[in-house]
Design brief:
mainly alpha; 4 helices; 104 residues
Length: 104
């Protein structure tokens, strides 16, 4: 259950980063509410996962999902560069997160 909470927390982290960008473009209470909710759920999920998972592993996977997801969202929705080197780096981040899970 802790691993599922950690993945959901990482996805909420991605949503929070996406909402920061949306809020900067359109400052509305709805966007602000979604931003705060996403980060609240993200931190709550991380805290729950860290009750049973090692702190280093949980934090690395959480940040890996958030960082790789944020980069992918930027490519998909905000016209950021889709250079093959960026994609290789995203794959490396995700691969490192998967290896941390397999080793823990």
């Amino acid at each position: 259950m802790a691993w599922m909470a950690l993945v959901v927390a990482g996805l909420c982290e991605m949503m929070g980063v996406y909402m920061i960008s949306k809020y900067n473009k359109t400052k509305s209470m709805e966007n602000l509410g979604l931003l705060i909710s996403a980060f609240t759920l993200s931190f709550a999920g991380l805290a729950y996962a860290m009750e049973t998972l090692p702190m280093g592993t949980a934090y690395a996977i959480w940040t890996g999902i958030g960082a790789a997801g944020g980069a992918l969202l930027g490519m998909l929705f905000f016209n950021e560069s889709k250079d093959w080197r960026r994609i290789v780096c995203i794959v490396l981040v995700l691969g490192a997160a998967i290896m941390l899970k397999l080793l823990s």
